[in-house]
Amino acid sequence: MGHGMAKSIEGRYLQLVEAAKAVSDLDAALHLIRTIRDEYGLAHAHYRAECFTGMEQPVMVTTMPEEWIKRYVERGYHLWDPVLEAIRKERAPVEWRAPDEGTDIGALLLKDARGFGIGAGASIPLFTGPGPGEARIVIVAREDDPDWEARKALVVRDILLLGQHMHGAIMRLRSGAADVAALSERQKECLRLLASGLNLTEASISMEITERTAKRYLEEARARLNARTTAHAVSRAICLGILQAA
């Protein structure tokens, strides 16, 4: 990204800040993450929050390849990722790059990631206040970006602030929706089945209830989530950590 793009970002930054503050559901968060990726000329951007009180599932918004996300979990990388350990310890952004050589566990992880187009970038912890919860944004540089080394410090600075605003919006949403989003197990089950692709009739059969009762559960869930549509209710439930993304 050259000097011209840097000026373009400067002109768009306040708009991105306002968009980050206004995040209200998973769709808005994903749109913001994609916009950040494109505006800053990145390969990928990734947000994750977990372990907050009342959060039954982690909230993850990402442009990273689904195959890599699955591999990262299946191989247990999250249990010993040295970059993750470093940002937890230092509470500061950590830059990383896949090495050409090395056989230690961190080198093997980063070399594995490079096979999915994840070769260099930064992991940025977000301030979460007291408690066990943690949140972070990971950015991945494009492989064909010759200016990454020169511009990465400014990119990390901007995305730290944007990520903090987005995370704050999600946490405010969770706090403000704590009562209304306390869905019953049957309401969650109804939403979960609809999110999996079933229609209301099929969901009622799966739940062994009448379609009228299933419709009532859905309407109650939408009302508690202040959602306009079923899709909006599912998106907000995922963003709040009530449901897990498929």
Helices and strands, with pairings:
Layout: H1 3-21, H2 26-39, E1 42-50, E2 59-62, H3 66-74, H4 77-80, H5 82-90, E3 94-97, H6 105-114, E4 120-126, E5 134-141, H7 148-176, H8 185-195, H9 200-207, H10 211-225, H11 230-239
Description:
This protein has 246 residues and is α+β, with helices and mostly antiparallel strands. Helices cover 56% and strands 13% of the residues. It is built from 11 helices and 5 strands, in the order ααββαααβαββααααα. It has helices at residues 3-21, 26-39, 66-74, 77-80, 82-90, 105-114, 148-176, 185-195, 200-207, 211-225, 230-239, and strands spanning 42-50, 59-62, 94-97, 120-126, 134-141. The chain has a 5-stranded antiparallel beta sheet, sandwiched between helices. The longest helix is centred in the middle third of the chain and has 29 residues, at 148-176. The radius of gyration is 20 Å and the shape is globular. The protein starts with a helix and ends in a 7-residue tail after the last helix. 33% of the residues are buried. The model is unreliable at 1-7 (pLDDT under 50).
